[in-house]
Amino acid sequence: MRHTSSSWQQGYNSKEACRIVGIDVRTGKKWRNGRHAHEGREKAAPPIYREVPPSSGPSRYLGEADRIHIADRLREKATVRAIAAELGRSPSTISRDIRRNRHPGNGQYRSHAAHARAQVRRPRPKPSRIGQNPELRGYIQNRLDLRWSSEQICQALRTQFPDRPEMHVVHETVYQALYVQGRGELRRELARALRTGRARRRPRRQAQQRQPRFATPMVMISERPAEAEDRAVPGHWKGDLIIGKDGKSAIGTLVERATRYVMLLHLPGDHSAESVRDALVTTVQTLPSHLRRSLT
Length: 296
Fold this sequence. Notes:
The chain is of the alpha+beta class. The protein is 40% helix and 7% strand.
C-alpha cells in the first residue's frame, strides 16, 4: 500500500499507480479512499497511510533535534544567545524552552524529556483552570452573586490564597468563562451580575462602535499652521510630560519650536490629564499674546 501512496504523491494518476504496483484499479481506489463494511462480505478499512513530505522551511516550534542541540551546548556551558544564533532562533525562545521543560527537581535540561514535556503541553484548546477547580469556580460564582467585579474577585483570590497559585486567575479568565459559549465553567446567568449588566461582550473593532476618548472633538496635528512646521515664526509650542521613578513625580515641559526656549510646569500634587492641562493654561497665560500661536 505504501508503494501505491508513494506513486500517487509522485504525480501518477490512479490507473498508472495501480499498474506500477500490480493491482486492480478498483482495489487501488479502496486502498486510497478506504471502504465501508458490508455485512457478511468485508470489514471496513480506513484510507491508506499517506506520508507527509517534510516542510521546506523551519518550524515555528522547536523540534527534538533542536532540543538535543540545546542540551549538548548547555553541557558545554554555552550561552543562551550563542545557542539561539546557532539554531537561528530568538534568545527568548531558547530561554523560555529551557525554563519550561527542564526537570522540575534538579533543574537539568535533558533533550528527550524536555521534548516529551513540550509535546504534552502543546495540544489546544487548553482546559480552563476554572473548569478544573471546583473550589475556584464556587468562589468566583459566590462573589459574582454578590455583584463583585471581576477585578475585585481576582485581587481577593490573591489576597486570601497567597500561597496557592492554582487559585489565582486574571479577570480576563473570568470573562472568558462567562462569555465564551460551550465552555460552561460558570453559570450563564451570572453574566448579568456583572457591573455592565451585559450577557455578551460589546465589539470594539469598528471605529463607530468605540466610545470617544475626549468629550470635545480633537484638533488633528495635520491642522497645525504650516509656519509651525518650518519653525520660521516664534510662538508655536510643544508640550510634553516627564515622569519620575515609579510614577511618583512628574514635571511638564513647554518647548518653543523656533527658539527652543523651554518652560517647566510645576506639578506638585499629581500628573493627571486635568492637572497637566491646568498647569499648561496657567503657564501659557504668562506669555505675550504674539507668542501664543499654537500648542501641540
